Amino acid sequence: MAEEALQGDLLVLVDWGVQKLGDHQIRLFVEILEDRCGSGSTLITSQYPVGSWHQVVGNPVPADAICDRLVHNAYHIELTGESMRKVRAGASDYLSGTDYPGSGDRQLFRESGGRTE
User: Fold this and answer.
1) Who's near 117: CB < 8 A, 6+ residues apart?
2) Full residue range of the structural domain in which residue 60 is found
3) Residue 2 pLDDT
């Protein structure tokens, strides 16, 4: 996997920090970032602000390494406002889990990972 990640012009990581990484995964991620440094772009989406990435990683040494390789040479775009899912569904329907477009009910929404058909 690491070799494939190094070869592309763009590495895309979606929902960084949602799932806790183990020590081996963190080391591999730092190695990938180090090897890609200066040779390709990396796009990361996350629900967590950059300032909380040390907590997400859980270990200050690899967290520093990750931030050094990503944050200091980056374009940082922070989105604000309501979730488009809330806007489209209506805040009360979204929070109650009823009448969400394409999901049927709250349980189906959870099982589909929030995707609507």
Assistant:
1) 102
2) 2-70
3) 57
